[in-house]
Please model this.
Amino acid sequence: MLTWGTSTTGARPSNGSRAFHLELEEALAAFLGREACHVHSAGYLSVMTSVTSFAQKGDLILADKNLHSCLWDGIRLSHASVERFPHNNPEGLREVLESVSAGVPKMLVVEGVYSMEGHVARLPELLTVAADYDCFTVLDDAHGFGVLGRQGGGTLDHFGVNDKVDLVCGSLSKSLASTGGFVAGWSETIEYLRTHSKQTIFSAAIAPSQAAAAKMALHLMQSEPEHLERLWRNTRRYIAMLKSLGLDTWETATPAVPIVLGTRELAYRFWSALMEKGVFTVMSIAPAVPPGKDLIRTAISSMHTDEQLDRIGDAMAYAVKSI
Ligand SMILES: Cc1ncc(COP(=O)(O)O)c(C=O)c1O
Model:
């Protein structure tokens, strides 16, 4: 704080670029096995610009139908045409692509882990289809980063397909416990972003404290493996506990664990019962989720203690009886 102050007060190309930005970008690029990286002051900006800066009118974007809002905003802003394919369904993607003429430039946009459902993207199959049709590929790994792969390297590392995706982007506000976002890829692609992306050129740079927090968290991810181990131990225990109570976790495979109740009334009653027992969750009802999938959102972290998980288990049992 004494060295850098609280804000750069400006955008990167004008008066915002500082050594701490470059250090964070180099550390992220090295960790992700990418040539270069750029950080923004919000994940929303990073993700939106990863799409909108690399597609334009006349292009076709293939989008998983369950994408996050920032990806839809990026798609809309690009003026490209868009075709949605069924969620996490490589066969559905291929079917859509079969009817597209070969000359149209194409972009595939998917997430690594879908936070509402906890689903891990079927990346190897999706990327095979993308390669068959020569699609530029953008992956938002906001929820896979820090969770999947070696040392939390993300969904690409988990599947060993890092070289098959052009751009990987995400948030610093989840596993890295800061705020901000990143885009990582080939040097030329990141240079293009730095010189052409409006979200990059006309928005103030990430603050020094945010960058420092993210850099330290990234260091801890790599030097203290016990946090990732504990995250998965907690997650396995939590999901097993929910299943033993007969709860529907929408086939989650990650620490983002939905509990599907099916109607808004049941979701509300379940949420209130947990609140009564001091357990905070977030309700998500249609149209935010498909009809019949009204749910409460929960997430497990490495910081949950065994005692807290016991208490959560008791509260869940109470909520099941209350509805
Ligand atoms: C999948 C996904 N992408 C991007 C973002 C945006 O990240 P941020 O909150 O850092 O702006 C989020 C945030 O919730 C997200 O869930």
About this structure: The pocket of pyridoxal-5'-phosphate is lined by residues 42-44, 47, 68, 70, 111, 115, 140, 142-143, 171, 173, 181 (CB under 6 Å). The domain at 12-223 is CATH 3.40.640.10 (Aspartate Aminotransferase; domain 2). The CA atoms of residues 62 and 307 lie 45 Å apart. The radius of gyration is 20 Å.
